[in-house]
């Protein structure tokens, strides 16, 4: 029998890319993630291709830009014709396992309209064996909590309210959630992952180990709720007022006027834009506590892999679906065009000796979430589908250098059409298909192109916070034109190409990669 080749893909939810100690965060305490980075490679400029969860996870798991997979929002179906990392590994004899979720709405041409998967934000992508899915509405997790003897409230979601707190929680709080840490959702996902790993011993396996946190509601169980002093948390990067912030662009104004606290603090009241700095710092302290809780549970998973003798057979990838504004630009959540929503973590730990020279290194080249799938396939010596838009990151991991033709910018997209919980079309006076933006960003500039609204252009060297739109400044017109041309080049180069490598000829079918 040859050397075992296992893949552990850890996918957290809503973890900002700058919230890593090795990238300079002044406060975060994550010893297990830090240790993973010390044994692997951290990608400092790693971006998701789309937000929110559904589009971001579609790009992560299919290797396709959003302009190609077209699952453009939560609730928008993913075309069944697209392959994904699970399907590709099945060709290699793996039975890919899923703990967590993929937020995938099924293809209505293949699935009947009455299917319950059409009544939620998203179900599970095809190809995965579900070994730890908490149900369409978390019912499996809530049932597990009740089975442990915990008295569930009439509204199960109230487990994230502080003990003794009325249902009208106003916003950020330093109090712990009433659910004890040993019954948290983070523990539940970890237990499901460990159950699977114990059952998979002795065979090659791939596990997508997903976590819901640090996704809201921003409420952490003890002792994580008070691990961080709010006064020590970094202040928000934002304009002097929400009104001043809103002057930048109509889309930004829409979100400032509509994003409510209740989506982030269970039963909270008011708009996110009205949070003062003290509230933002408290929110960040709780958010960091949720991150530290995940870190502690990852320590259990890593310890088991080492104890079972599988650590040196396992490729470990730690990443995320998207980021979180966390009060920056007076926003909560993930939307729009700011880096806080799109910049995400990526750490790869390759167990092979060929990666020894790069352990602990930090890569500054631009990398993207579409690069995950080709990286795994490369590590397993499997072909990468021609349709895949990403490229393997193994050259960085094993050679410590970028290929000579590596990308010099990053691209991401956002679709803001109406969904059942957000209705911008009428406010902005746009049709559904005009509600789209695309971003091209390099070390110096950032260009945001809208299908139906005015563009944005930022000088990142002079304005790293991205407060001043230079799109109408004649002095910056040449630079903006260059970035617009690069975006067009990108779209032409990556237009859907599943079959464009094939061609008929007098000698029959020919194929080019």
UniProtKB/TrEMBL annotation:
It is an enzyme of class 3 (hydrolase). Keywords: Hydrolase, Metal-binding. Its EC number is 3.1.3.-, 3.1.4.-, 3.1.6.-. GO terms for molecular function: hydrolase activity. This is Phosphoric/sulfuric ester hydrolase PehA. CDD domains: PMH. The keyword Hydrolase applies. PANTHER family: IDURONATE 2-SULFATASE (PTHR45953:SF1). Residues 5-381 form the Sulfatase N-terminal domain.
